[in-house]
């Protein structure tokens, strides 16, 4: 998966058994992707899904890599502005809960959101967490 923010393109490629890179499909988006997280598929063996958070918008992009199915997890509140997070360009990170975990976390300006990767939807919001843009999962979730 590679991101071209200028063209608004997420390019999905496959690496074959021989190590060759082949184009699978492209997704056109105006989300301006900040960060991506991969998660093992809960419906297909040896497959992955990708979640992408937005630099400017309140939605998270979900892509089922095996089929190209795209879904939006909506209304996760406004992210930090890029200039409010000078440490790197990921003003809205997204982080999985471990190799076999089903949850992901992404912040907004004043909250943390826990997403359910199995159901591809919002699980809960933790409020009154300002600038919570550093995430560490402890233990298995």
From TrEMBL:
Q: What organism is listed for this UniProt entry?
A: Sceloporus scalaris (bunch grass lizard)
Superkingdom as given in the UniProt entry = Eukaryota
The gene name on file is fstl5
> Could you identify this protein by its name?
Follistatin-like protein 5
């Amino acid at each position: 998966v590679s991101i071209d923010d200028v063209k608004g393109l997420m390019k999905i490629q496959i690496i074959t058994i021989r190590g060759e890179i082949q184009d699978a499909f492209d997704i056109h988006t105006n989300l301006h992707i900040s960060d991506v997280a991969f998660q093992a598929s809960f419906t297909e063996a040896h497959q992955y899904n990708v979640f992408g958070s937005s630099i400017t918008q309140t939605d998270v992009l979900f892509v089922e890599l095996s089929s190209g199915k795209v879904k939006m997890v909506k209304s996760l509140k406004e992210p930090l502005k890029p200039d409010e997070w000078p440490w790197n360009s990921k003003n809205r990170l997204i982080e999985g809960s471990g190799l076999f975990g089903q949850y992901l976390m992404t912040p907004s300006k004043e909250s943390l959101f826990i997403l359910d990767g199995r159901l591809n939807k919002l699980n809960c919001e933790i409020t009154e967490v300002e600038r919570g843009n550093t995430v560490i999962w402890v233990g298995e979730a």
